[in-house]
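tool_call predict_complex ligand=S-adenosylmethionine
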Amino acid sequence: MYNPKSLKAEEFISHDEVLETLAYAEENKNNVALIDEIIEKAKERKGLSHREASVLLACDIPEKIQECYDLAEQIKKDFYGNRIVMFAPLYLSNYCVNGCVYCPYHMQNKHIPRKKLTQEEIVKEVMALQDMGHKRLALEAGEHPTMNPIEYILESIKTIYSIKHKNGAIRRVNVNIAATTVENYKKLKEAGIGTYILFQETYHKESYEQLHPTGPKSDYAYHTEAMDRAMEGGIDDVGLGVLFGLELYKYEFAALLMHAEHLEAVHGVGPHTISVPRLKRADDIDPEKFDNGIDDETFAKLCALIRISVPYTGMIISTRESQAVREKVIRLGVSQISGASRTSVGGYTEPEPEDESTEQFDVSDKRTLDEVVKWLMELGYIPSFCTACYREGRTGDRFMSLLKAGEIQNCCHPNALITLKEFLMDYASEETKFIGEKLIEAELENIPREKVKEICRDRLVKIEQGIRDFRF
Ligand code: SAM
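tool_result ok
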């Protein structure tokens, strides 16, 4: 029975409710009056229910889709301005006891080299990331009770936060590790993590069980209820995601929104972010063997509809996607992107020979961080290395209130300029610096409050004098 307030996976992601939603969406996909009504509701910027959003996803009337794209673009501008937050993944270990059939780290893969970073190796990797200019990381690890226990993850987080190399610092560590216990989530919270990210992979229980035949991850309910345990453990910011390509995208889309509605209903705050990874080629994984791949146009439509359905939730896209796809979906709603990523264990310090690779999947966008930053600025975006919100305690509903009050422009905008300035001073090429300085000068004018603008100017001068880490 469907109940968004239930704490049971099969009740808040009710299979029957998803099927009824898909049937309702199919019946109404040409119902222009209803579609117009839903688009009007989306214009209020309070989001859409999974049923409403699913009707828009089913609809293939070109003018209506265009209206959704235009609205997504507008909501993106109104809520997130032209800022794009930058991050990089850091792979700690690819030891894994699970049997995920789409991931090359699955236990049956006997030929992939297994590697786990020592604390000394983590220092080297983090220094390499700091030398590119990164300030925000997403930690990645396989699930292995003895090789990667929670103590190893906690120790690694401590190491990462402690490294101060030149002007570098990792100021926010997000964590993407397997579902765990409330106790362990409490420990992660105490270690000072930013967002806890866990991809659902697929919400379709039967497929989930086939795709995860062995290991602790095979427990659908334990995995699906992880975010409730994380929030119970005190983690305010959680990040959802589906691995597109595993199941039918319409099913995943409806269920993903049901998951967001569930978090809002139970914890009073929805997900902080939604990631939209697509299945990629990897060591012993051929994406062609999975039947549910989606084309770029469908992918863009999904991104736009997520944007208008959950306007307060950040959207993340990784280097799994090409420059061209990233360009398209950034416009439609993506607010965070990774840059210069390595998806192998130790990949930032030791580029591996092809046949020895511990890579999790092929990366499409292989540009350097400097190139990505320059590209974003040429497109009119402000690459932001800001990590202020969570360090100022603006997490969960406190962050959402700031967003809802429209105060972002007096807070995130100057923070973006300040952290971009740090990047330009410490890491950028001459060309990137030139473009960036002009951009900062122009964007200062877009800070609404005079007082904030003045303080921001003053801080920019101080950064030139060598002082770092200001924040609003
Ligand atoms: N091991 C943790 C877990 O099981 O949730 C999380 C870390 S895993 C390194 C991060 C994510 O990579 C997975 O959740 C999955 O969605 C994604 N992934 C796995 N194989 C992939 C592939 N072949 N292509 C694209 N993404 C993949």
